[in-house]
Design a protein that fits this description.
The chain has helices at residues 2-52, 56-89, 99-112, 122-136, 146-153, 188-197, 224-235, 241-249, 252-265, and strands at 176-179, 185-187, 202-203, 212-213, 218-219. It has 266 residues and is mostly helical. The strands form two sheets. Strands 2-1-5 form a three-stranded antiparallel beta sheet. It starts with a helix and ends with a helix.
Length: 266
Amino acid sequence: MASTSAAASRDNGVPGRLRNAASTLYSDNQSLIAEIRKAMILMKEVAVDLERDGQSQMVKELEDAVVELLGTSEDCTQFSAAIQSVGNEHQPRPELTDFKKLFEDEVAKLKANSSFAPQSHPLLRQFREAVWNVHHAGQPMPGDEQEDIVMTSTQCNLLNITCPLSGRPVTELADPVRSVDCKHIYEKKAILHYIKSKHGRAQCPVAACPKILQAERVVCDALLQIEIDEMKSMSKQPGRTDVIEDFTELDDDDEEEEEEEEEEDD
C-alpha cells in the first residue's frame, strides 16, 4: 500500500516538474527574443546614420539582416509556444516520451498555421520608414496610401494600450506586468489585488477575455519593457496617436451614425 502511494506521488509530481522545466526554457527563449528585438532597434538606428552619410548599399545590407532576424525571431516565438503547449498539456505515460519529436511536431503544427510574412512585418516597415524619413520626412513612401502608413507604421505587439483596472496607459504604468496566458497588460499592484480578491476565479478584466489569471503567471517578461519603449517612441511621432485612436475606436455603429449625419447635412 505504501509503495503504491509513493508511486502515485511520483507520478503526480512529474507534470509539475515538466511545467517548471518548460517555464524555465520559455523564459530563456523569451530573453533571446528580447535580445533579437534590441539588435533590430540598434540596426535601425545605425541604418539611419548610414543613410545620412549616403551609404545606401550598407543600409540595404542591414535591411536584409533585419529580414533574417525577423525569421529567427518568429522561429523562437513558435518554439516558445511549443514549449508552453507541451509543458501545460503533456501527461506522463508508462512508455518513454520522445520529447524531441514532441516539440518538432508541435512546432511543425504552429508553422503550418502561421501567416508570418517578413516583408509585411511592422518592424521591417518601421526600419524602412526611419530610413525614408532621413531625406523625405512627412512624405509617404512610394506606393503607400496615407491610411496604410498610419496603420502599419504604428503597429506594436501590445494587445491593450491601457490597464483595464487603473485606466492608465501602459506607457505610464509604474510596474507593468503581462499575463503569460492571454498576453494582456496590467499595473502589477492593481492586478495582484484583483486576483487575490477573486479567490481563485479571477477572470482577465479585459472585456471579452475568458482567461483565468494566476498571480504567478502575471509577470514582467523579457519583451514587455522593450515593447512599451517602442510604443513610447512611436507615440512621439507628431500627429500619429490621435489618428490611430480614431481608426481603432471607430466601430460599425459609429460609421453608420456618421453616414446618417452626413445625409442630414446634405
